[in-house]
Amino acid sequence: MIVNLTSAEHCPSAALGLCKVVNVCYAKKCERIYPNYRAKNLFMGWWLTTSPTENIVALMEAYIDNAPEPITHIRLDEAGDFIDQGRVYQWNSIARYFYERNRIVTYTYTCRTDLDFTGANYILVNASQPGISGAIRQFECIGRQEYDNLVPQQGEYKCPGDCRRCRMCYTDRFTGKIYCRQH
Questions:
Q1: How does pLDDT run across 110-128, given as a tens digit for each residue?
Q2: Distance CA 110, CA 117 (A)
């Protein structure tokens, strides 16, 4: 299950100059190509910002309980990033609820070096750059040629690009650095 807290168009990391891939952002490309995807992200960003946590949980429960396949993971922010520290606390609370209720693991990728994730122990945080407090591991996108020539060292992993076969980004067993090829 993917929950975008903002749209790529209104990504706080990009606005703050924290994103290293802003010029090749896959989420921005998707929003440009698919207007309905952009509209959905804009609406959800507004709704998630203005709705009480109970309403967010109720909507997610309805989806999880009626999903065509069992939901085992929640990915926060395929497009965008956390708006502020309050959202980190809010989503940690939501992640805790779904972990305790359904054993659903929540994970995210973030560039927000200005936010503290040390108390967000129900969200597995993949840091897109060094210096993110509370991140479980670092995740770095690199160019195709660099990726193709990369020989991972101890504590490093080369993303195969297929989440159905690899679970490295949403396990707490690996705490090193994951390299992925830029889209």
A1: 999 999 999 999 999 999 8
A2: 10
Question: Whole-angstrom distance between the N-terminal and C-terminal Cα of the chain?
Answer: 21
In the sheet with 137-142, reading across from the earlier edge strand, the strands are 2-3, 73-76, 105-110, 123-127, 137-142, 177-181, 156-158
Higher pLDDT, 24 or 79: 79
Find out whether 177 and 137 touch, Cβ atoms under 8 Å: yes
Tell me: the pLDDT tens digits for 10-44? 888 888 888 877 777 777 888 888 889 889 999 99
C-alpha to C-alpha distance for 36 and 87, rounded to whole angstroms: 25
Are the beta carbons of 40 and 5 closer than 8 angstroms? no
Q: How far is CA 40 from CA 7, 9, 47, 58, 164, in A?
A: 8, 12, 10, 19, 25
**And the tokens for 10?**
């209104």
Tell whether the model's pLDDT for residue 167 goes beyond 90.
no
Chain Cα centroid distance, residue 35: 21
Residue of 91, 75, 176, 163 whose CA lies nearest to 135: 176
pTM score of the predicted model: 0.89
Let me know: does 61 contact 71? Beta carbons within 8 Å.
no
